[in-house]
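Complex 421.
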Amino acid sequence: MVDADQTFVIVGGGLAGAKAAETLRAEGFTGRVILIGDERDHPYERPPLSKGYLLGKDSRESVFVHEPAWYAQNDIELHLGQTVDAIDRVAKTVRFGDDGTLAHYDKLLLATGAEPRRLDVPGTDLAGVHHLRRLAHAERLKGVLAALGRDNGHLVIAGGGWIGLEVAAAAREYGAEVTVVEPEPTPLHGVLGPELGALFADLHREHGVRFHFGARLTEIVGQDGMVLAARTDDGEEHPAHDVLAAIGAAPRTALAEAAGLQLADRAHGGGVAVDASLRTSDPDVYAAGDVASFPLGLFDTRLRVEHWANALNGGPAAARAMLGKAVAYDRVPYFFSDQYDLGMEYSGWAPPGTYDEVVIRGDAGKREFIAFWVKEGRVLAGMNVNVWDVTEPIQKLIASRTAVDTEALADPHVPLESLGV
Ligand SMILES: Cc1cc2nc3c(=O)[nH]c(=O)nc-3n(C[C@H](O)[C@H](O)[C@H](O)COP(=O)(O)OP(=O)(O)OC[C@H]3O[C@@H](n4cnc5c(N)ncnc54)[C@H](O)[C@@H]3O)c2cc1C
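Predicted structure with flavin-adenine dinucleotide bound:
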């Protein structure tokens, strides 16, 4: 039983941190909960930043995890706009804020998330070069897209991942000209592989997005501080008024590393290494959300998952583990995306090289289908596109780890629930 005199500190005011705080109180913890975040905004959800909020369809208020008053009502000591810059694991303190305030912890949760990777090319200091991680970035980008749409301006996006594509869709809705530069032969190649990556390329081309595959940005050309063009390593030059760097995110591990906590190797996506109960190499320190690398027994691997559902569920799981409850965090990874009128959900993990075929159930031409990534009959991942309420049976199929009849898998008349049992 956890003592009411104890203090639990959470570093990182994102979804994982806020949900962990909520869970501590929901589970009856009566000790101190200190939540420290370096952003000035209350904890918010990031998915709308490249979708509804960017498009002006979702209000600013709608993105917050809790109402501002919720923190005081739940006796959460919230320190916003304050960076934790050191952890002393012997004294069990964290140091934060400009005045170096020390807070003692009995248990500590690292929920420091990730930060956008920066382009390492000339011209990134120009005013028209953007990243998208924070609410303030989205606010700025919203104005940029509206202006580009109004003036027939060009946006070059470096990176054809989820954020690059979602912003491409938003930019087209504003009426901007969009070129996506991507080193792989399709967008989303590293997650979906070439088969389904091609489907997303077609979707965007139909909406007027231009792709330049097999190339990297080498320079952003400017004049008088403004972007003029983006050059690629094959010598092409794309006109640009603004450039978005959407080349992935890196886990914010500096604090953990300086504190001597074990990190996962880069081959597994880096991050703070935790066990199945989300506990780090220090038994009083936990990590959850984008920053944590956890063992995923289902796939016999260790993974760092940069998705909303992992923050939503990982924060609470870590909170329960901090309270001494038995936790085995072994969820099927899940994420979603919306682009134009295409909505999708993806469950599982099947990067290129791990599967041997993609089985389609439904009509890929009409973009109403489920794709399954299969290895020797075993379903590793499933993505439902404009088909809804199938996540549960898809995840059950993945979790069953048994081979299924792929003809039946492809047949929409065979209930998914009858497979893999
Ligand atoms: C634009 C965008 C769109 C997305 N869309 C989707 C989507 O459609 N579907 C999906 O599944 N996922 C999506 N994601 C991913 C999802 O938002 C993340 O997985 C989720 O935000 C991770 O939550 P987190 O709490 O782990 O980290 P974060 O949200 O990054 O929060 C960590 C917080 O900790 C703060 N921090 C870091 N270090 C310190 C420190 N030393 N001291 C104090 N504070 C610190 C950070 O500034 C940040 O506020 C999207 C992400 C972005 C950026």
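Residues 82 and 97 are 5 Å apart (CA to CA).
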